[in-house]
């Protein structure tokens, strides 16, 4: 079973390979990172590690037994007890429950290790796989958004265990 690991400097080569191998797959559901991401990868990786060290973000990789990166799960924009969740799983590792498991583990870390009380996430309406992962991991839809010109849904996960209330937004039922 792949292991969730906090991002480290030595992950750089495997992480770059993961991003290159899955670029087209990811671009089908999320905005492409662009060529600059790949040409400036080493500088970007160092900057991410510095952000992580400062506590502004928490980056994780899902590593296979051979060190191959099969996914990423990140908490960014940490402030006021909250953070934004983002994740991506390699095409060859998709539909095996790895995303749900990794997101659930990061939610636990967010509450127990990072002291966060809530997480937010967004996905497009045409990405039912991501919607299912978020729902299985305890996120609830709270509203609508637009992501790179596409309609999307905003999700929130309360890490404190407080009860939620249900509202209707644009004819859809959401819980907050």
Automatic annotation (TrEMBL):
Matches recorded under InterPro entries: Acyl_CoA_acyltransferase (IPR016181), GNAT_dom (IPR000182), N-acetyltransferase (IPR051531)
Family named by the database record: Belongs to the acetyltransferase family. RimJ subfamily.
Residues covered by the N-acetyltransferase domain: 2-160
Keywords: Acyltransferase, Transferase
GO function term, MF aspect, one: protein-N-terminal-alanine acetyltransferase activity
Identification of the protein by name: GCN5 family acetyltransferase
A GO-annotated cellular component: cytoplasm
A Pfam family that the UniProt record links to this protein: Acetyltransf_3
